[in-house]
Amino acid sequence: MFRSKAERKVTEMGYDPSRLPPGQYLTDKWPVLHAGSVPHVDRSLWTLRVFGEVENELTLTWSEFAALPHSSNVQDIHCVTRWSKFDTEFTGVHWRELAALVKPKPTAQYAIAHAEHGFTANVPLSYLADDNAILATHGDGAELTPDHGWPVRLVIPGKYFWKSAKWLTGIELRATDQPGFWERYGYNNNADPWAEERYEF
Questions:
Q1: How far, rounded to the nearest angstrom, does the alpha carbon of residue 117 sit from its chain's CA centroid?
Q2: Which of 92, 54, 57 is closest to 75 using CA atoms?
Q3: CA distance 155 to 1
Q4: Could you write out the DSSP letters of every residue in 146-169?
Q5: 100 Cβ contact list (under 8 Å, min separation 6)
Q6: Which residues are paired to 154 by β-bridges?
Q7: Is the peptide bond preceding residue 151 cis, with omega within 30 degrees of 0?
Q8: Residue 32 lies in a domain
Q9: Which CATH number do you get for residue 120?
Q10: How many domains does the chain have?
């Protein structure tokens, strides 16, 4: 028994329909969605700052970031605008590599992703420890395009994709949560696609 036409289509495409969260449809494309313009980033000037509730605040240049151990994973991604894309491969640096350098304090419970244009996204720090969480430089085998967050995008698995901040410039660790850009506009703080936690109202 299918929940929807979208679920039937997923089956016809050869996928397990249980992978599709309610209210979503499957696409093999990667739609481009963001507020405002795509920033121009000079990678030679780009830095990633990790700060807040850490023992050692850190600022990495692109070459220093690129020299960290890299890993890859494959996961499904889900956008609040109702599209889902299965089996998306991301390559980049896992949070554990940065955590070893900055040494989060016991008080660190939340992570705030800071990005170009002043965008932010907030998640519990534990989300960054997920094996599929990654500071991605590549998607599906190719370097990220500017539209998709080049040079670095934070990927948070299992949440609506707005939590995966494009154009990453920093990660702030905090003892308390702080709503991100989209949460301040009424998006649900938890962003669970399986519970359809799209908006707070």
A1: 17
A2: 92
A3: 33
A4: GGGTTT-EEE-TTSBGGGS-SSEE
A5: none
A6: 135
A7: yes
A8: no
A9: 3.90.420.10
A10: 1
Domain limits for position 141: 42-74+88-195
Task: Report the relative pairing of strands 71-78 and 168-174 from DSSP bridges.
Answer: unpaired
Token duo for residue 40: 């121009």
- HSE toward the beta carbon, residue 111, CA cutoff 13 A: 25
Euclidean distance between CA atoms 74 and 87, whole angstroms = 5
Contact 118, 154 (CB under 8 A): no
Question: Which strands form 110-115's sheet, in the order they lie side by side?
Answer: 58-61, 47-52, 168-174, 110-115, 120-124
Strand pairing class (71-78; 83-93): antiparallel
Closest CA to 169 of 14, 47, 12, 24: 47
Is residue 68 domain-resident? yes
Within a domain: residue 30? Answer: no
Which pair of tokens denotes residue 51?
């700060």
C-alpha 30/C-alpha 12 separation (Å) is 20
Local confidence pLDDT in tens for the 201 residues of the chain:
445 777 887 887 777 889 999 999 999 888 887 777 888 999 999 999 999 999 999 999 999 999 999 999 999 999 999 999 999 999 999 999 999 999 999 999 999 999 999 999 999 999 999 999 999 999 999 999 999 999 999 999 999 999 999 999 999 999 999 999 999 999 999 999 999 999 986
Looking up tokens 């499957």, which residue turns up? Answer: 26
Full-model pTM:
0.92
Residue type, 143: E
Residue 52 lies in a domain: yes
